[in-house]
Structure formats: structure tokens, C-alpha cells
Design brief:
Elements (H helix, E strand, L loop, with lengths): L6 E4 L6 E4 L5 E5 L2 H7 L3 E7 L2 E4 L4 E5 L4 E6 L5 E6 L4 E5 L10 E6 L15 E3 L1 H10 L3
């Protein structure tokens, strides 16, 4: 799918507002143990690259969840805002932040090998194991 237009959204309390231009209309799910612990289930995210602008930065708390990535959330209401690759500054924003009813498409599930058996999704998606995710980003291909 082609890139969609600029999107706007906010955290639950409105202290943090975001403007971003997603790379596509794809929503991806991550089933890794860290994401599931962070959100109580898979994280649904939209890749936005570096095309992200926050208002209310003073309300954003960042947690370094690995050597290569960090997660941001609103310190007032706890809303999950983003997953960011440290070196490249590439953002994946929580899909639920956006106000628009854009024509999103559930496209990919990553760390499918870490998904527990107690849930599944009916939509057909591209499914990548953890090893395939690391190989994809190590090679720079998308």
C-alpha cells in the first residue's frame, strides 16, 4: 500500500499529542515477550520512520528496553506511545494513538514464534519469527 497522509493523535489524557506520516497504511503486531509484558498482549503499531513530531515532550518518559530500542509512554496517563530504534531514531507508534479512521490494513505479525497459544487473529498476514525479524533488519531489507 502507498503511504497515507499525515496522521494526528494523542495519549489518553491529551498531555502528549503526535503528528506523524506513516510509511504505509499497515498495522503490524508484535508478539515478543517484551511487548506482551509492556501492554498485556501483542502491540499493534504503525511504522513512521523519523516523520514524527510530539507536543508535550515533557510528559514523555522513555524506557530503554534493550541495547537497540526504547519505548515511550505518557508519564501522566501511562499511554504507550512508541517503540524507537535508538541508532536510527525510527519510530513505530501505537496504532491506537491516531484519531483518524484511515483505511488501516493489518499486514504483519512479528515474533510469531513467541505468540502464546491462547489467542490468534483471523486476518491473513505476513508472519515472521524472531530470527527472521533480526535478519530482515540486519540486512536493511524491508
Amino acid at each position: 500500500m502507498n503511504a497515507i497522509v499525515e496522521q494526528r493523535g494523542s495519549c489518553l489524557c491529551g498531555a502528549v499529542r503526535v503528528t506523524a506520516t506513516p510509511k504505509s497504511a499497515h498495522i503490524d503486531a508484535c508478539h515478543c515477550t517484551i511487548c506482551r509484558k509492556w501492554g498485556g498482549g501483542p502491540v499493534f503499531a504503525v511504522e513512521c520512520g523519523t516523520n514524527v513530531l510530539f507536543q508535550g515532550d515533557e510528559h514523555i518518559t522513555v524506557y530503554a528496553s534493550s541495547e537497540w530500542a526504547e519505548r515511550g509512554f505518557c508519564r501522566k496517563c501511562g499511554t504507550h506511545l512508541f517503540y524507537r530504534l535508538k541508532d536510527e531514531g525510527l519510530y513505530s507508534l501505537s496504532a491506537g494513538l491516531f484519531d483518524s479512521d484511515a483505511e488501516w490494513h493489518f499486514a504483519e505479525q512479528i515474533f510469531i514464534d513467541e505468540k502464546p497459544a491462547w489467542y490468534s487473529f483471523a486476518e491473513p498476514t505476513r508472519n515472521l519469527t524472531g530470527a527472521e525479524v533480526f535478519a530482515k533488519y540486519a540486512s536493511g531489507s524491508e
